Amino acid sequence: MEMKDKKFKLLLILISFSIFCYHIFNLFHLWSDIPSQITIHFTDGEPGSKFFLFVMPIISVFIWFLVGLFVRNPEKLNYVNLTEENKDIQYSRTQSVMILIQNVSFMTFIFANEALLDNAVGMESSLPIAISIVCLVICFIAPLYLLVWAATLKY
């Protein structure tokens, strides 16, 4: 991994970890203000336990580690237009995109959970869900960019 890729990875990990720590602090700080039953939009309007607020952070950590397996082994993924001449650059670019997806998907879950937390305590803010949606869009656009880039390689 090149030095700029290491800096990119370190920066994303630092941002992700900071957001995660802020969210966990916020969750515990507001815990006493959260009603025992909160609105969970996945249960047909039925309220759920406030402990559901721990589900998405757990899922986000699980997905972060799962995607990390692909980051460590980019040669295990499928490629378009892969040749002996371009395999190193394709592996490098794919690794960078997977690092981006790993951290941005992590942030997507955390910001979505932050929006759920804000809603549970009555703080109406559209910023966390807006950031979550932007992160989700990035997770879809990044691999499409990589696909188009790989399909247009000349060697």
Question: What composes the largest sheet?
Answer: 2 strands, antiparallel
Q: How far do the termini sit from each other?
A: 22 Å
Q: Structural class, from secondary structure content? A: mainly alpha
Q: Helix share of residues?
A: 55-70%
Cα radius of gyration in angstroms:
19 Å
Q: Tell me the series of helices and strands, N- to C-terminal.
A: HEEHHH
Number of E-state strands: 2
Count helical runs: 4
How many domains make up the 3D coordinates? 1
β-strand amount:
under 5%
Shape: elongated
- Uncertain runs are none
Question: What's the arrangement of strands in the largest beta sheet?
Answer: 1-2
- The pLDDT mean sits at 90
Describe the protein:
The chain has 155 residues and is mainly α. The protein has one domain (3-151). Helix content is 68%, strand content 4%. It has helices spanning 3-30, 55-72, 87-120, 127-151, and strands at 37-39, 47-49. A two-stranded antiparallel ribbon has the order 1-2. Helix 3 runs antiparallel to helix 4 (127-151). The chain is elongated, with a radius of gyration of 19 Å. It starts with a helix and ends with a helix.
What characteristics describe this protein?
single chain; 155 residues; mainly alpha; 68% helix
